[in-house]
Every structure is written in structure tokens, then in C-alpha cells.
Amino acid sequence: LDTSGVHPEAYPVVRRILEATKSDIKALIGNAEIVRGLKPQSFVDDTFGLPTVTDILRELEKPGRDPRPAFKAAGFKDGVEEVKDLKKGMILEGSVTNVAAFGAFGDIGVHQDGLVHISAMSRNFIKDPREVGKPGDSVKAKVLDVEVAR
């Protein structure tokens, strides 16, 4: 169960499930046919309610699944690894790391966040940078200037 999302505190429920199915953990885990045939209510007790037991059964059916939505990471450009590699006019993929009143900071893969001033964040006038971006957003950014000394 170490590779599953079943918390060790819930192992007593899993033991009861194993007893009820007369199988071992290797036969049960990942076996949708067995798990779907179980009634979650049968394993509810004072400690573990129906939602918890249902989650345990889901995890036993598909161990290791990740319920979070897919995350698209920015694809950093090959050969652009340091500020000195940046050239004016380059268009790079990155992600917003922070938003401030004067603009947003973004990671474009050069170990130093870049600043996008509020005036360059949108073709239309915006009062607040948070109108067009928030930390974690994937963006395409055009390099307008490079200040290596800073």
C-alpha cells in the first residue's frame, strides 16, 4: 500500500476488505472487477465514513492515479539558460511567478525572473496586472530589453 494513496490510518479498513474478499493485497490492488463488486457501506464504521471508504476503494481500484487536473509546464527554449543568452526580440515560453502593482515577474528558464511592466502586459489599458495574469499562468513573452548587469 506504500505506492497507493491509502493513508496508513486507513489500513484497518483495507484489512477488513481483504478479509471480506478472501484475497491478499496483491490480488486486490488494481483489480477493478473485485473492487467494483464491493459495497462501500459494508466497511463504514465509527472511524471511517462512507466518503472515506469510497475513496479507499477508488484508490485500490486504480492505485497511484492523480486526481489533479493535467498541468502544462512551460517549455523552456534550448540554448537559453542564462541571462546572457537572451536576445532582444526573442519570444519565449514561461510561467508567471509573481504579480505586483507595477507588473509581473516570470520564469523563462534563465535562473533569474524577468519583469513584464504593466504597460507591456496587454494591448489594452489595464489598471491592475492581476486582470491579465496570476502566478502559475503559462505565458509567451517577448524580450524587449536585456540588462545583464542587473
Automatic annotation (TrEMBL):
Domain S1 motif: 89-150
One Pfam family recorded for the sequence: HHH_9
Protein's organism: Streptococcus pyogenes
Protein name, per record: S1 RNA-binding domain-containing protein
PROSITE patterns, alphabetized: S1
A Gene Ontology molecular function term of the record: mRNA binding
Entry-linked SMART domains: S1
Gene3D superfamilies: Nucleic acid-binding proteins (2.40.50.140), Tex RuvX-like domain-like (1.10.150.310)
Record GO biological process: translation
UniProt cross-references to InterPro entries, sorted A to Z: HHH_9 (IPR041692), NA-bd_OB-fold (IPR012340), Ribos_protein_bS1-like (IPR050437), RuvA_2-like (IPR010994), S1_domain (IPR003029), S1_Tex (IPR044146)
PANTHER family according to UniProt: 30S RIBOSOMAL PROTEIN S1, S1 RNA-BINDING DOMAIN-CONTAINING PROTEIN 1
Entry's Gene Ontology cellular component terms: cytosol
Sections of the chain in a coiled coil: none
